Amino acid sequence: MMSTDLRSAMGEFKVHRVRFFDYMPSGIRALAFNQDTERMAVARMDGSVEVFHCSDRFFQEKIIPGREQCGIEGLSWVGERLFSAGLNGGITEYDLTNQKVKYTIDAYGGPIWTITGNQQGTHLAVGCEDGTVKLFEVNEDQIQFERNLDRQKSRIISLSWHPSGSKIAAGMMDMIQVFNVETGHSIHRMLADRGAGTSRSKECVVWSVVYLSDGTIITGDSVGMVKLWDDQTGTLIKSHNVTKCDVLALSVSQNEDSLVAGTSEGIVVQFQFVSMVLEKDDKEWVRTRTFRNHTHDIRAVAEITTAVVSGGMDAQLVVRPLLDKIEVRSAASALRKIHFPHRRLVSCARKSGLMLFQYPGHLELWRLGESEGKGTPGSSLFVKRNPEKLLQLKVKGEDHIRCSAVSPCGGWIVYSTASTLRLYRLHCDNNNISITKISKLPKVLSSANQLCFSSDSSHLFSASAQSSVHIASLSQSGCKFVGTLKPKSGSHQAIHLLAASEDGKWLASANSDHEVHIYNLQTQKAHCTVPVYSSAVTAMGIHPATNCLFMMHADQQMFEYSIEQKQYTDWSRTVQRKGLHRFWVERDTPCLNVMFNPQNPSHVILHDMYMLCIIDQSLPLPDDKTQFYNQLTLKSLTEEQRKSQSHAFKVCKTFKDILCVELMPDQSLVVVERPLEDIATQLPAPIKQKKFAT
Amino acid sequence: MSELTLQFESSDDELPEEVAFDASKSVALKSVKDALDAAKREKNLLKEKRRKKQQLFQEQKKRKLLPQELLEEFDTKPQKQTDLSANKGIYKKVSTKPSHNNKVKEQETGTMPKKTPKSLPVSYRVMRIKDESAAKTLQQRATDFVQSRLYGPGTKRTTNAELLSLKKKRGASQGAAVEFANKKLGACKKARIKRSNKRFIRQQKLIPF
After folding, report:
1. CB of B62 less than 8 A from some CB of A
2. Which of A171, A353, A679, B190 is the most exposed place for a label (fewest CB within 10 A)?
């Protein structure tokens, strides 16, 4: 941890640079794109499933936490329902409204390697370890086992339905089989070549298979070949050697003219169905582009209408737009890499200098260090007392933590998994820490989507089913249920953000349907609803003095809504009328926290992954011609010139890979950084690639 | 030529040797006795082997049985309660452990008055071992299969440190390899190497006192 002195035109701050949050993202295992709703479902190695909204700047709308020993292997959409299957042998359906698992049924075939739904949306096929392809009928509320296709001798690694639903291609060990779905018998058996050299002794694993409507079957295998087969004759048409290691994932576009293949080396290769000679009709699959955006194995690729999305063991989701499909160059057409989750993993007890870090399986409570002396801006201060880890709280059971919070006074810690909610009382003397679990919790507090304490730490707000918020009062005697806040109308989608006002009168909640409801805590009734905006809310906060709700959205727009007057503020209207600066709107990571400075009521402090910004509402807004990042320039000007040149957005780019920024009461900033290089050193081993001049 | 023929055909031309009747008789008897001895030896050897195996089995069986104290406890309990059925069960030789236990248990549940059943502590669960472990090993085996195909022998893998170091070497601002630049990396390994170096120097007395 370092303390730096940050002085600039935006004010003087002592900054605690925190790097002891060893957050490790989990690798991506599967992707599934839903064409109709434009959502991308991502399954991670730790069993968590995330849903991204592709047209809303890939904002991470929903997160369903995973559990230990999950072994998820595949995802599939059937209409608007999401299913997954894994090595634990079960098929899971997810309740996307409440962001949790709906049910899991055992397929009784051993570990399941792949799951795929047919285009008609009537059946799901799973490929099992015991060599069977099992068909499940998708009913209104459940799935039901229908029958097995003929059992084979080796495991089924990949499946693909023919668009008509009458045939299904299965990639197995050393071969590909085509089944007739109605009879269950195998029509063709195509043998995959084991290649030359050392790979001859190992079986060739057909990692992925794609069945096109014209009868072409495309496979990617462990020898590094992408092969095209004909299903009428059962023979090989063409084979392309893409890499010397494995081809792990394939995906074909909706209109079947483009195919992308992901490899172990981290490269994505695109094939396109074009005619070699202009204006001639004989088309064939030709290798066109190569994308090198990953460093580790790519386990899943998906081609959406205008981009190629890939994810793998380096835990980043990369969206690479295909420039020939895009008409207008905008922020949406830039390469996007999503590293960190779009939820806060750090909560801060401002009054006692404590920070709570949320890991999947445990929580860590740290006390910030102290420094002494003053320094010049940008210098490091002497650390008098090192930050220390006070507590590590392990979760009981196999579920991962969904959300957690520490009260502002530092006396309460609460966390929730998919099945339980636990509240702890914390006593912290100078050297002694004691923690007691509150065992008698109100029955309604069983599981929460989001948790928040009131500013005086007297109440706990827990967002639960049907977009409602439960209020519980906290005292020496324990926790008592006070009431439930229900929205007047609207959706039942889960709440992902909660914000409480400083004076304890108001509570704002934002759910996945872009609805923001404001409740009056004294009457426990809904006060008003903010007009629905097309983009999701990524961060919000209530100003301590003016009680205005400041909201940041995924498309980088900002709104300020006055709670007492039930309308947007004048400043907000000015921002909308004038428009935001291009550089602000083109940022590709969302703002995750909104803070206010009690000593400077016109300041709003925001941060995203790469920058920290203080918006001064008393200064004029920049227009497109002004220099946006003008902090350095301002330093060199005189006092007079500075006053005329400065605009409202003061951006600081000193800190990188920021997970969280908090403002402490003593005017010091805490910046929690997680350098991507540190994450990279702990990832699984990458393939050795020979590069020129090394 | 006659001498040569004499030499080569000497064995054929000479008169057969005179062998006494006794000598040949003794030889014949000896060979018969040898054969009988060999057969006897074989039989004895097999007998020994069989005996040793039997001993080994007995010892293994003994090891499988419960320790003596527990058996005595089982013996005494039914004796206390009943006389009739107890006699039948206890004095029977303890041959195999499971059947003995079952017999005793049957007697216990049939004849003893109902005792308050001991309940398990709250955090314990009862589950069949075969169900649990079979499913787990299947999943573990599947994971091992994927691990060995992607990271096992035959795959050309390198370390993350090397990947990052190469990036730095070819990057815009060239710097040292990550192992040297990043102090956190491999900190424990470096500490271990330092300690072993110190030990070596002390051992070899490279630095004079």
Report:
1. no
2. B190
